[in-house]
Amino acid sequence: MLVAGIAAVALLATGDLDPGRLRAMGPGMLPRAIAAILGLAGLALIAAAFLKDGEPIGRWPLRGPVFISLAVIAFALTIRTVGLALAGPLVMLLGGAASPEVRWKELAIFAVVTTVACAGLFRFALGLPIPVLILPGFRL
Q: What span, in angstroms and rounded, lies between the C-alpha atoms of 65 and 82?
């Protein structure tokens, strides 16, 4: 039902866009086609759920969505205030905490290596204006 609902929202949101024709596609053609395919898949899943017996879904674990949401929020709050050097490891550690099978030592090493690689790529290789480290009286 979630898939069919997302498709319905997408169809409503793209209602103002001109779909054009097959020979001259408009800006609304691709999003509406994808929404229609997604809606059909959602309806097929709903029909299959009524036709086949299966195991009940059970409780949904909240750990993953909570920690992933916290990681996104933490990154948004820290990237411009302290820079990538602290925001990067923070988001990776919070994101890693979403799994109950997390191995903290390996995750910490991964976070540091990935942050260094991201800083090197985005700031120094591509020249993007991403702050690497912001401390009182110091900015890199």
A: 25
Are residues 29 and 19 in contact, defined by beta-carbon separation less than 8 angstroms?
A: yes
Pairing of strands 138-139, 134-135: antiparallel
pLDDT tens-digit readout, 37-52: 999 999 999 999 888 8
Helix (H) or strand (E) holding 138: strand 138-139
Record the tokens describing residue 103, joined without a space.
């191995």
3-state secondary structure of 20: strand
Residue pLDDT, tens place only, 56-73: 778 888 999 999 999 999
Which uninterrupted H or E stretch holds 135? strand 134-135
Question: What is the value of pTM for the model shown?
Answer: 0.63
Give SS3 for 25: strand
Mean per-residue pLDDT of the chain = 92
Of 135, 88, 80, 87, which Cα lies nearest the Cα of 115? Answer: 88
135 DSSP β-pair partners: 138
